[in-house]
Amino acid sequence: MRSLSAWRPLVIAGLAAAGLGLSVIWAVDHPVPLMLQGEVETTRVDLTARVAGRVLKTPVDVGDRVAAGDLVIELDSPALRAGLDTSKAALAVAGSNRNLAFSTRPEMIDARRAEREKAEADVVLAQKTYDRVSQLQERSFASEQVLDEASNKLNAALKARAAAEANLQLAIKGNSPEQKAVAVAQVEQAAAAVAQIETDLAELTVKAPLAGEVTARTAEIGELFGAGTPLVSIVDVDHAWFTFNVREDLLNGLVVGNRLKIRVPALGGRELDARVTVINAQGSYANWRATKATGDFDLRTFEVRARPDGPVEGLRPGMSGLIDWSGPRLMER
Known about the structure:
It is a single chain. About 40% of the residues lie in helices and about 25% in strands. The protein is built from five helices and 14 strands. It has helices at about 5-30, 80-100, 105-140, 145-175, 175-200; strands at about 35-40, 45-50, 55, 65, 70-75, 205, 210-215, 225, 230-235, 240-245, 260-265, 270-280, 300-310, 320-325.
């Protein structure tokens, strides 16, 4: 008959086997929860100026709430303001030239008419002189040279009358259509230059495009900033969402419109109701790669966005959101 010490190893082995069996049964009935961790994200806008300028006013600071259209930064540029004055002066000159191209002074028309009348009188006199000399030459009382001189004077008078008539018509009708078109184009060009500088000046006033909270401000009064340099950053904290990266075999039929319960540790474990708004496949760089040569396959990773039903006080970008993916989830639309 064996002693008690001889049976002890068998008893211990039996107890260990029983414990292992109970552990397996417990693991089957109580699987380890699958937790998905995501992150709170919001729309962020980095405000810049399209033109260079020196900071004149900074009415907001980091942490301030702003509404859409609120002034956040005001810059100043004396060079742009001087350029605007120059452009406006050029526009005035172009406008005056256009007016001259489309109008003729009555005094000029009268002067051209008087010149035409004088040229007409010169033609009459030259014609009479030529007729007399021609008659005298036929009677041999005048030489051929005198007749040629009279003929030249008559031709010159006729050409002078034609030139005077053309000048009169030019004074009455004004400049040619081509000259008028050039004058109009010059006005439009000058007006465009003024509008461009006015647009640049408007860029010196930076306003919030949306309501939110100022999270960064690099601009300080007196500093000079170049075009495109970030001045202020604003985040829309009232319209935050959660982003989860989910392996495709875990999607389990999830579709846009499904509702989820998300726990936020930073809010004391508070659970939020959210609706799935986006399910997008990530790039190949985010794929889960198989480790076996056979019997396994690569799985893609999907971005799942879920937006809370409304603004959540205290919810900030960067906070974590947890979903118990293995337990029951609210999946109704």
